[in-house]
Specification:
single chain, about 85% helix, 4 helices, extended, mainly alpha
Length: about 120
């Protein structure tokens, strides 16, 4: 579920590099991208092999992803490191709020389904 929102191992890696190893935020993010390359290649290979990629949909996503990556890299180079850290922190907070919301929503939906099933059994 988390990977769909952009929060995953890369986010944890950036946090570890910047907090525990006191690495500059820009270097931590660039290091994360280097780690991302082999894992994404492996994931692409596995998903192509199991025919889980819709290439009609993938092509525009890839194009816009490349454009976004270039724009993001240019912006990241021009932004002060302190501001970049604050923006990254805000991003993490927003993702955390979203994840909590999804968990609560899923829990409530599951609880309602279970209650409806019980009510259906009681009527019989």
């Amino acid at each position: 579920m988390s990977a769909g929102t952009g929060m995953g191992g890369g986010t944890i890696l950036i946090l570890c590099l910047s907090i525990f190893l006191n690495m500059d935020q820009k270097i931590a993010q660039a290091t994360n991208l280097i780690f991302f390359i082999p894992t994404s290649i492996a994931a692409i290979y596995v998903n192509i092999k199991s025919k889980k990629i819709n290439f009609k949909i993938a092509k525009p996503i890839i194009l816009w992803g490349i454009i976004g990556a270039i724009i993001g890299a240019i912006i990241a180079q021009k932004i002060d490191v302190k501001l970049l850290k604050k923006l990254f922190g805000i991003f993490l907070i927003l993702i955390s709020i979203h994840e909590i919301y999804i968990l609560i929503k899923t829990y409530r939906n599951q609880k309602n389904k279970n209650n409806n099933k019980r009510k259906g059994c009681e009527k019989q």
